[in-house]
Amino acid sequence: MAAAEPKTPAGTAAARRLARSCWSAFWDYETPKVIVVKNRRLGIVYRTVQLLILLYFVWYVFIVQKSYQDRETGPESSVITKVKGITSSENKVWDVEEYVKPPEGGSVFSIITRIEVTPFQTLGTCAESMRVRNATCDSDEDCVAGQLDMLGNGLRTGRCVPYYHGSSKTCEVSAWCPVEDGASVSQFLGKMAPNFTILIKNSIHYPKFQFSKGNIENRKDGYLKHCTFHEVSDLYCPIFKLGYIVEQAGENFTQLAHAGGVIGVIINWDCDLDLSASKCNPKYSFRRLDPKHVPASSGYNFRFAKYYKVNGSTTRTLIKAYGIRIDVIVHGQAGKFSLIPTIINLATALTSIGVGSFLCDWILLTFMNKNKVYSHKKFDKMVDAPASEPSQQDCALTDARGLAQL
Predict the structure, then answer these.
(1) Would the annotation count 113 as a binding residue?
(2) Which of 23, 162, 230, 319 matches a 20 to 30 Å C-alpha distance to 5?
(3) By the 8 A CB rule, do 324 and 256 touch?
(4) Contact, 106 vs 234, CB < 8 A?
(5) Is 301 flagged in the annotation as binding?
(6) Which residues cross the membrane (predicted)?
(7) Could you give phi then psi for residue 22, rounded to 5 degrees?
């Protein structure tokens, strides 16, 4: 009698079946199956999702964003500026050479509107400014000789001397005397400043598309000598009045001229190069750049000095200048039709339309009453059998009413 074969443990058999199933699934081929579900509400959801996706790609992606174009941002740019005008203070007439700093005509420049002048400064010893911390004193013992305060005006000598006015005393320093607070005189230059004219000459170049353009009209009749900027009638006459720039930035000219500030002139070149070059036009906007609502850092000022000789000794006039700094900022982007982004976005659009099918399948398989019937109809498994042997799929009975009940 033959010996009985040992039985395979149940766990081992299950593991083998799982392994065969996974290996078989690796070589299986899946193909979509089209099932028509007669459900009006589900059909409305499906078509609505498809319509929304189609509208998004047609209107926003292709019309608004123009995603069919190849783009270049940040054009190469050059800016040349020139200021004209005269003004006067209490006892002096000022021309461009004196109130525009620096004079080179770059994209950043300052127009002086108020000054505090400390004249006839010479190297010597004098009282320190009361604005300097620990500068006040009662006796020489309060002043340390040789002490140097980085926020002060000079090197302390160790003496306590009377201040320039009043009964107070401060430590004596070796510096340019008198110091700034001791004898400064304020002068306002902003009386005629709103009528100053500023020529802003700008040219841009997009190297990817080999496209260049400037913001001045090419005319030979002296057009620039008698025009000022107007957004509609004189777009290519980039001559702006300073008062107009400040007004467009939403600022009060008198207050700005007194405390100083920074105004940005933004030139934007957004060009659709599928159109003619005449459709590529600059757009100007103006806004204040410095934080005017922060008292500790609002305003704009700087110092400079003018040196000269008096009886053989070096003398200088120290000027603390308040002004309106103009920053010309150029940016933009250009776009032109290209086949590659067009194909990519079309493929994305066609693929995204399939989201409607995914959403409706999820609703059918999750929320519908006949979700098991739909699952049975949607997922079929076919075994590749020889032609002479009928497969299980051929022998299976179809449910003629299954999907009609969904």
Answers:
(1) no
(2) 23
(3) yes
(4) no
(5) yes
(6) 44-62, 346-368
(7) -65, -40
Is 320 annotated to bind ligand?
yes
Pairwise CA distance, residues 129 & 135, whole Å: 7
Integer-rounded Cα radius of gyration of the chain: 41
* Token pair listed for 274: 């599928």
Distant-in-sequence, close-in-space partners of 339: CB < 8 Å, separation ≥ 6: none
Helix residue ranges, H only, 323-390: 339-353, 355-366, 371-378
pTM: 0.75
Tell whether residue 82 is among the known ligand binding residues.
yes
DSSP 106: -
Known binding residue 84? Answer is: yes
Q: Round to whole Å and give the CA distance between 107 and 200.
A: 8
Whole-angstrom distance, CA of residue 357 vs CA of residue 370: 18
- Helix, strand, or coil (residue 105): coil
Compute, in degrees rounded to 10, the torsion defined by CA atoms 275, 276, 278, 281: 30
Q: Is 179 marked within a binding site?
A: no
pLDDT at 250 over 70: yes
3-state secondary structure of 374: helix
CA dihedral 348, 349, 350, 352 (to 10 degrees): 80
Angle between helices 40-55 and 339-353 (to 10 degrees): 160
Tokens 């300052």: give the residue.
110
369 is in an annotated binding site: no
- Angle made by CA atoms 136, 138, 143, in degrees to the nearest 5: 65
Chain mean position to CA 92: 42
Identify which of 281, 183, 172 has the alpha carbon closest to the alpha carbon of residue 235. Answer: 281
**Residue 22: other Cβ atoms inside 10 A:** 9
Tokens of 232: 């509609």
Q: Are 308 and 316 in contact (CB under 8 A)?
A: yes
Half-sphere exposure at residue 402, Cβ-oriented, CA atoms within 13 angstroms: 14
Give buried/exposed letters for 152-190 (b at 16+ CB in 10 A, else e): bbbebbebbbebeeeeebbbbbebbbbbbbbbbeebbbb
Beta bridge partners of 108: 327
The CB-based long-range contact list for 92-96 (8 Å cut-off, 24+ gap) reads 92/187, 94/189
Annotated ligand binding at 133? The verdict is no
Q: What is the pLDDT of residues 255-299, one digit of tens each?
A: 999 999 999 999 999 999 999 999 999 999 999 999 888 777 778
